[in-house]
């Protein structure tokens, strides 16, 4: 998607406001404050005292705080917003920012469901502002090296991720119906799309809760996705599996025509393929600092970044397809999930111009993969 560029440089760093002062908001606060590419202008949270405490804890007692992120951005001259609120607030906060002329870098997931995420993709089209989702694993240099190895394996048969940990979070995760699928698996699903450069076609999932689980919902899930091109992606995970924990990134195996690549999630990946030697280089950045660097560079150059909302939504569609299959017990088609989410987005949309943009899409899949947008290029506000 074409979007408005925002020039910045060493002498003129991008002025950024953060919204959301919870656990992850504090991590972003430290990252933005440390980056030579950005100047932090303020932090907003519905709980303004929490925002104040977060700023104080970061050694920034004079940092402006507020409850309304757009108002704070205006008061402090911010040029962009980082949205680190809870998933339910992603849609209203990001929509308000885009319509106020602010590009947004948002924490995953894009929104609380695919329908709301489609609305955000349409809002980005209408406003011509960049909305990039920070899916932090995308910026892991080891994953990038694994991706380069995968490109040397010829056709790919199966990709698998094992994720087995024993986590006692307390709070909302222990009350969710599908905590592993909804709160965690999106990282792996997004990484699988990134590794393969392929999109999901179907999902079959069995999710369940072992008898010793301390979660109310299903802490275990096994999902098989068919990706376009025929590769199968298998995700096998648990959040209540005592002993021998895998990495937070999961343990990966990619089986291809010419060999196998594997990654334990914490160390350099290993390539076992005839005639292939040498370790690929990978990008020079990682984690949320990497996402911030990529966001600033995209605003300078106008090059769509990895994680641009249209490109990101399919990872959320994988989560919803897996949950739907877990509930129905059947194989689910991702296009059915997208079609229903598109219809829901049209029903729920309150902004006429966003509804018009959604109505102009031939299908959600076409819009997300660029087909509709290339047909209607030039219809954005800017
Ligand atoms: N990339 C990762 O590895 C990673 C890790 C943890 C969390 N996250 C994501 O980061 C986001 C935040 O997670 P968290 O753990 O910090 O949550 P949290 O609940 O600790 O903090 C969220 C904050 O948002 C504030 N908020 C909610 N609605 C708001 C609104 N409309 N305006 C202003 N503030 C509002 C809340 O008051 C709260 O302080 C979530 O989307 C989560 O999925 C990502």
From TrEMBL:
Annotated Gfo/Idh/MocA-like oxidoreductase N-terminal domain residues: 14-133
UniProt keyword Oxidoreductase, yes or no: yes
SUPFAM superfamilies the record matches: Glyceraldehyde-3-phosphate dehydrogenase-like, C-terminal domain, NAD(P)-binding Rossmann-fold domains
Domain called GFO/IDH/MocA-like oxidoreductase: residue spans: 145-261
Keywords, ordered alphabetically: Oxidoreductase
Pfam families attached to this UniProt entry: GFO_IDH_MocA, GFO_IDH_MocA_C3
Similarity remark: Belongs to the Gfo/Idh/MocA family.
Protein name: Dehydrogenase
């Amino acid at each position: 998607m074409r979007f408005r560029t925002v020039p910045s440089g060493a002498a003129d760093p991008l002025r950024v406001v953060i919204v959301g002062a919870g656990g992850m908001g504090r991590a972003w606060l430290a990252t933005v404050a440390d980056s030579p590419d950005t100047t932090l202008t303020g932090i907003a949270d519905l709980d303004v005292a929490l925002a104040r405490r977060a700023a104080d804890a970061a050694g920034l007692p004079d940092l402006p705080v507020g409850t309304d992120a757009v108002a704070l951005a205006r008061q402090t001259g911010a040029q962009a917003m980082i949205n680190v609120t809870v998933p339910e607030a992603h849609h209203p906060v990001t929509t308000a920012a885009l319509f106020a002329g602010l590009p947004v870098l948002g924490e995953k997931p894009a929104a609380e469901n695919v329908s709301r995420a489609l609305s955000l993709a349409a809002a980005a089209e209408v406003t011509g502002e960049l909305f990039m989702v920070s899916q932090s694993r995308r910026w892991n240099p080891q994953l990038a090296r694994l991706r380069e190895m995968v490109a040397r394996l010829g056709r790919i048969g199966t990709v698998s991720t094992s994720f087995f940990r024993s986590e006692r979070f307390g709070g909302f995760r222990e009350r969710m119906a599908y905590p592993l699928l909804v709160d965690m698996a999106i990282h792996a699903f997004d990484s699988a799309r990134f590794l393969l450069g392929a999109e999901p076609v179907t999902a079959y999932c069995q999710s369940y809760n072992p008898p010793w689980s301390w979660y109310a919902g299903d802490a275990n899930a096994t999902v098989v996705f068919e990706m376009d091109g025929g590769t199968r992606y298998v995700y096998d995970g648990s959040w209540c599996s005592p002993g021998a924990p895998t990495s937070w990134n999961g343990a990966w195996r990619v089986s291809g025509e010419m060999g196998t690549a594997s990654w334990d999630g914490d160390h350099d990946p290993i390539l076992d393929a005839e005639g292939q030697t040498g370790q690929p280089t990978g990008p020079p950045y990682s984690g949320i600092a990497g996402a911030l660097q990529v966001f600033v560079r995209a605003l300078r150059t106008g090059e769509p970044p990895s994680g641009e909302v249209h490109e990101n939504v399919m990872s959320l569609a994988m989560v919803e397809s897996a949950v739907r299959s877990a509930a129905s017990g059947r194989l689910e088609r991702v296009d059915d999930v997208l079609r229903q989410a598109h219809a829901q987005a049209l029903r729920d949309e309150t902004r006429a111009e966003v509804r018009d943009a959604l109505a102009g899409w031939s299908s959600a899949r076409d819009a997300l993969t660029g087909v509709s947008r290339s047909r209607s290029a030039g219809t954005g506000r800017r």
